[in-house]
Each structure stands twice: as structure tokens, then as C-alpha cells.
Amino acid sequence: MLQQTTVAAVQGYFATFTARWPTVAALAAADDGEVMQAWAGLGYYARARNLLACARAVVRDHGGRFPAEEASLRSLPGIGDYTAAAIAAFAFGAHAIVIDGNVERVVTRLHAIDTPLPAARPRIRAELAALVPADAAGDFAQGLMDLAGRICTPRAPRCLICPLQPGCRAAASADPTRWPVKAAKRPRPTRHGTAWWIEAEGQVLTVVRPGKGLLGGMRALPSCDWRGDPTPPIAGDWRDLGAVSHGFTHFELVLAVRALHLPAKPALAGDWLNVDDVATAGLPTLFQKAAMLARATSLEAA
Predict the structure, then answer these.
(1) How far is CA 32 from CA 35, 49, 128, 197, in A?
(2) DSSP category for residue 171
(3) Of 41, 88, 258, 274, which sits most exposed with the smallest number of CB within 10 A?
(4) How many angstroms separate the Cα of 266 from the Cα of each of 193, 203, 205, 272?
(5) Distance in Å from the first CA to the final CA of the chain
(6) Rounded to two decimals, what is the model's pTM?
(7) Alpha-carbon distance 181 to 47, whole Å?
(8) Cα separation of 52 and 77, whole Å?
């Protein structure tokens, strides 16, 4: 959950999630749709799919216990270099080099590494390899993270009280915030799509998106492909309600919302939910915005 998401945003989700599925075995046996619904609102939904796949792999291949070796951890779904090293060091006391954004900031400043990230990462790893103690890798990593969070902060580093200050090249410079150097970001393209609000008999049609791809496995309103032809799922007197926008990692999406009110439910694939229940149905944020627009417009019309 903490990958790409702040502690403040995660806390409530984590408490609810672990209360519902307190063990790896319990999560492995969970229903996919229920897990995705519990994750709704956190974003980066591939994490939820990977978490579920990881739990099932641990139960199936490792007897329900996480492997202690960094290489074995990396073989599990959703676990990359950083997470594998962190689990190995913190949970099992293994000698592993834990590198996150905080650690990158400290090391690039300490050595004034001018190579932009991510190209600088091999150099960062090499510098750390000479420093990480064999018997306290987790403590060392936690110390660097705490230093980064309290002293070597992104915008206002407190160099005068930093224990690394005597040997820090960034501290000796006029502007330590120059580091880490980051590659220029490419502008995010804008894509367009359409969501369909189909309401009949006090209910609205929802669907489960395909398991792979953006928002895979999530409950949502019917919609067109972000690059496709916005042909509605049924002919009718559709109303244009406006549009909502949402930022994803690699693009911005503008989603037009169109509504159709019918006297009786048509035969369409999906699940009909009471209109008042849509807000708690676990829709991802994009479709929550679309549903809120449709509901607000319906109330105004009434």
C-alpha cells in the first residue's frame, strides 16, 4: 500500500484490510472482487492484484511463509528490488541493500552525484555496498530513512545538525537541494473516454472491468476504451452531463459522462445496484467522480 502512497492515506485502508484478512492464508483465499473493492480509492490497482497473486504464491509455493532470501522474494508477484531488500533486511535480518527515494536523496547529496535518476542508481548501490553492515542492514536502512525524513529533507535540509555534514559534498555547496538530479519529466498526454450512466427502476448498471489493464478487475460504470469509439451500449435518448478528469501515472484522462434513464431495466451484461449504493460499491476514484456527477445532475433535474 505504501508504494507510491503516503502513510496518512494508507493508515485507514491498512487497518480495515488487515482486520478483514489478517493472515496470508486468509488473503490467498479471498474473493478477487472483494479485495479490489476494499482497495478502491487507493489507486494504482495493479498493487492489489499483485498482492493477491503474491499471497496465493506464498501459500501455494512456500507453505504459507514468506521466503527469507532476497532472490526468492523478488520472484513473487509485485515484489521488486526495493521491496525484496526491505523484507529481507527488516523481517529476516539479512544483509540487503535497501534503497528507496529517501536513501537516494541522502547518498546523492553525500557524494554530490550529478548523474540524473534513475541512471544514478548503480552508483548509489555501489556507494551503499561499502557501508551497509553485515549484521545490521535493517537498522542501517532505517537510520538513513529517518535521517532523510527528519534532517536531509527534500526542500529545507538541516545540514548544520546532520551527523554526515562534515563529509557531505552537498552540504559544502551553495545549494544542497540541487541533489538528487532528476531526469526531465515528459508531459503526460491527455486521453478521452466516455462513461455511461444507465438508470432504471431506481438502479444503475455497473460492470467489472477486464482483469488485465487499467483498473483491471474493478467495478465501474460501463465505458468505452480510452482510445476507442464512444458507441453507447444501448440506443436511446442519451444526455450529456459534462466530464470529469483524473490523472494516472502516464496520462491524464478526461471522461465524458452520458446518462440514459429508462422505465425498465434492459437486458445488458453487468450488475444493477441501487442508485444510493453506488457511492459505497468500491468504484475507483475515476468512476466515483463520474457517478457523483450523474447523481448531482439527476438531483438537479428532479
Answers:
(1) 5, 8, 40, 24
(2) T
(3) 274
(4) 23, 11, 10, 10
(5) 40
(6) 0.73
(7) 28
(8) 9
Q: Do residues 168 and 159 make contact, with C-beta atoms less than 8 angstroms apart?
A: yes
Distance CA 66, CA 131 (A): 27
In tens, the pLDDT along 118-168 reads 999 999 999 999 999 989 999 999 999 999 999 999 999 999 999 999 999
How far, in Å, CA of 71 to CA of 36, rounded? 28
3 phi/psi in degrees, rounded to 5? -70, 115
CA-nearest of 259, 212, 255 to 45 is 212
For the chain, domains (ranges, CATH) are 7-65 (1.10.340.30), 101-178 (1.10.1670.10), 190-301 (3.90.79.10)
Question: Whole-angstrom Cα distance, residue 300 to residue 233?
Answer: 25
Chain center to CA of 57: 21
40: Cβ contacts below 8 Å, ≥ 6 apart: 218, 219, 282, 283, 284, 285, 288
The C-alpha R_g of the chain, in whole angstroms, comes to 24
Handedness of CA 33, 37, 39, 43 (dihedral sign): positive
Pick from 84, 61, 36: nearest CA to 210 = 36
Please say whether the beta carbons of 52 and 30 come within 8 A: yes
The 10s digit of each residue's pLDDT in 62-121 is 999 999 999 999 999 999 999 999 999 999 999 999 999 999 999 999 999 999 999 999
Phi-psi region of 112 (alpha: psi -120 to 50; beta: other; left: phi over 0): left
The CA angle 67-68-71, to the nearest 5 degrees, is: 80
Element (H, E) at 148: helix 137-150
